[in-house]
Amino acid sequence: MARRKKIYEGKAKILYEGPEPGTIVQYFKDDATAFNAQKKATIEGKGVLNNRLSEYFMTGLSTIGVPTHFIRRLNMREQLVRACEIIPLEIIVRNFAAGSLATRLGIEEGTALPRPIVEYCYKDDKLGDPLVTEEHIAAFGWASQQDMDDILSLALRVNDYMSGLMYGVGIRLVDFKIEIGRVYDGDFQRLVVADEISPDSCRLWDIETGQKLDKDVFRRDLGSLTDAYTEVARRLGVIPKSNGHSKPTLIN
Q1: Which of 15, 30, 102, 122 is placed for a possible disulfide with 97 were both Cys, Cβ 3.0 to 4.6 Å?
Q2: pTM to 2 decimals?
Q3: Residues whose CB is less than 8 angstroms from the CB of residue 75 and which lie 6 or more positions away in sequence, other chains included
Q4: Average pLDDT by consecutive 10-residue portion of the chain (252 residues)?
């Protein structure tokens, strides 16, 4: 497919004009960043793994009726998605205390939360994506009350799906973040899960050992990020299991 005009380049992806109106080509880079891009590296194969895993999760969500922007994967690094207006919020769902929540509230990392906690951050890298409340969201017009009700419902449905899926392969879904976009059909608006769902945007711990299989491996210098993401893909069947003599290969 001929590549078109670049629309936007972020820390982990590049967006290009799609082949038809209302579509975008999303390209997954090998770049890894942490601590608001203060730590950076290029991790060979990371973009390929995230493309495949995000395809897997988005497709699964669609099959249970959760709307997403995903249309289809184009190749090893690109997927075709619906163009949508991104609501300027990161929606974070937490099942266990970790990261900033553990630090902020002085809770031991790994503590099970009494129920899933949904938090919102304002999407602005320059500000460090600050935590905001529904009062801020309403006051500044980032989303309506109906939008917020729909966002909460979508976030909890994604959590139910992802938690069960991961538990089935021996992985604990500690927390994750998603972005939500508005898609317009004439005058009708609907909200869809957008951006990506991958180990870049989730905390995933092995249930038995507590081994981290997410971007904390990079944040905390815990080993090979590619190996961690490959293990998630292998357990989910996204890539074939290794025969013990060679690393698993990704099938196009």
Answers
A1: 102
A2: 0.92
A3: 252
A4: 80 95 96 84 95 98 98 97 97 97 97 98 95 98 97 98 98 98 91 97 98 96 96 95 50 48
